[in-house]
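dumping the sequnces here before i forget
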Amino acid sequence: MAVTNRSSPPGPEPLGSSRLSRVLLAVCRVTVGLLWIQNLSWKHPPGFGNKSDPPQDLYAWTLKGVDNEVFAPWAWLVEHVIIPNFAVFAWGAFAIEACLGAFLLVGLATRLWALVGLVQTTAITFSVLNTPNEWFWSYFLMYAVHLALLATAAGRAYGVDGALRPLWRQRGGRLSRILLAAS
Amino acid sequence: MQTPRSAIGRTAAGLGVGAAASSVLAFADGPPWGIVKLGGTGTLVLLLLAAAAVTAGLMGARPLIVLAGAGFLAAAVLQLVQIGWTGANLLGGDGSTVALLLGFAVGLLALGLTTAPDDRDAPTSSTGRHDPA
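..and the predicted 3d for all of it:
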């Protein structure tokens, strides 16, 4: 009687999990965190350049979404909603970017903040992609790196997520499930 | 086998080392190498809080880790309030300083406030090597 040897086809190889890979991933995550942190230096609360003439600070960059239109609905939103209520949106952007930098720096809820980074990158891209002398690859690279942080769950490599995920998994409950999904 | 408590302590100490190392980001004046703005007082505060975090992490004392995190949070709030409203600037920082301090605050507070299960039920490593998605 013939015996058929049915070996299962090889599955996809796991992503690199060596110590070097994890160190490099942590370096990538920290660098992105520092990107967001450093870009808060030129945003000056409480006014953020609101109604300045000539336009300055975050106000100037926000106006570029109207002056150098990238996406018509976004330009409309900036002109008719954001600029008239600039203080609210400026503080909101400041808070979001501070949290982006903070959470990616230490690797906490990293997948969630990678998603937020993609959304914030979209807002920035819609504002400045067509601005003269802007290097469009900057914004494509921002998308790429946040996708990489999301895909690799980068906070698990030498981040707070890595230390806390075992505890969240043991504790169970809704909050733990949310934190596990976010990390 | 590495227990969750030792992983928490090691990570807290690592955050402390990272906080101390981040002081070099303020040496240069402006981009590209000046990533964070910090005055002399701000640098001193950062280094003191970093030392507290390292000490707390090495001791594995979660209340001390929480205390260090609270210290970073207080510094972040102080910086934000001063640049946003009062016009003073004790730490000599700006928005980047707020975010930097906030990062170490949330990391240490998360580590210190997450209660550990009994160590007899401890799982394995903190580095995520075999962590399922």
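The CA atoms of residues 122 and 143 of chain A lie 8 Å apart.
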